[in-house]
DNA sequence: GAATAGATTGTCT
DNA sequence: GACAATCTATTCT
């Protein structure tokens, strides 16, 4: 028996399909709120991305808030405004996608008000729709947590890359759908040790007990 | 289970 | 030219 974290079963495909039919995307004002509020509110919501290959979606189970220019862990630290960070300075509800380590992509949603370069990083999802598509993109069997338990992995699974930079997250191709969350935990953000005191802030949110959370929280 | 190294490229100094 | 909001395979214990 593998080691033990509580294991919610993945939603049945029928449940996912029903979810897709009924729900309207969360409106832009969902994102136009403080970063910590949105980061927490995103837990349990369903991130959906549709491409010519098909639709894939998952429940968000882990997020992090980034709040430049003060936050030294943010790419917008110190008000740094470049081609890469530009979208963060615009209105809420658009995608900030960046590449890291030369080969992985990470997906964020711009939040707060225009001119405030804040974003919420989506770090892990629990697959809900398009399991075969995600499995094919990742080269990982459906049902394995390695499908989507990390920022780079979920981007690959959902087909999110540079093409999604600046994309509207309130649109037909890319959106969040309503969803409920279980108990929510907090911890410091992952791999931002370079940010000094800012690295210690408990700005990571996750659904407690969800096996898709990328880095197992202590307790 | 834990620790390590290697992959690989856009972005910024 | 350095390095990154990571992932994987491999090599220990």
TrEMBL record:
Extract the GO molecular function terms from the UniProt entry: alkylbase DNA N-glycosylase activity; DNA binding
Q: Which InterPro entries match?
A: Formyl_transferase-like_C_sf, MPG, MPG_sf
Which keywords describe this protein according to UniProt? DNA damage, DNA repair, Glycosidase, Hydrolase
Per the UniProt entry, the Enzyme Commission number(s) are 3.2.2.-
Tell me a GO biological process for this protein.
base-excision repair
Q: Please state what class of enzyme this protein is.
A: hydrolase
Which Gene3D superfamilies has this protein been placed in? Methylpurine-DNA glycosylase (MPG) (3.10.300.10)
Q: Does the keyword NAD apply?
A: no
**Which family is this protein grouped under?**
Belongs to the DNA glycosylase MPG family.
Name of the protein in question: Putative 3-methyladenine DNA glycosylase
Q: Which organism is it from?
A: Sorangium cellulosum (strain So ce56)
């Amino acid at each position: 028996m593998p080691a033990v974290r509580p294991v919610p079963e993945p939603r049945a495909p029928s449940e996912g399909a029903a979810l897709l039919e009924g729900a309207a995307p969360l409106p832009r004002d969902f994102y136009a709120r403080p970063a910590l509020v949105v980061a927490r509110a995103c837990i349990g919501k369903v991130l959906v991305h549709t491409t010519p290959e098909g639709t894939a979606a998952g429940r968000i189970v882990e997020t992090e808030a980034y709040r430049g220019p003060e936050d030294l862990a943010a790419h917008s630290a110190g008000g740094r405004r470049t081609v890469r960070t530009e979208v963060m300075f615009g209105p809420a509800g658009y995608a900030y996608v960046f590449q890291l380590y030369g080969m992985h992509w990470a997906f964020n949603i711009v939040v707060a008000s225009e001119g405030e370069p804040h974003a919420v990083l989506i770090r892990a999802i629990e697959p809900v729709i398009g399991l075969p598509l995600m499995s094919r993109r990742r080269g990982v069997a459906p049902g394995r947590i390695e499908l989507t338990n990390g920022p780079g992995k979920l981007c690959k699974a959902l087909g999110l890359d540079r093409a999604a930079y600046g994309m509207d997250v309130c649109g037909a191709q890319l959106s969040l759908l309503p969803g409920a969350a279980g108990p929510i935990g907090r911890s410091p953000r992952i791999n931002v040790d370079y940010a000094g005191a800012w690295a210690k802030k408990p700005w990571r949110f996750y659904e407690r007990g969800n096996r898709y959370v990328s880095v197992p929280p202590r307790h």
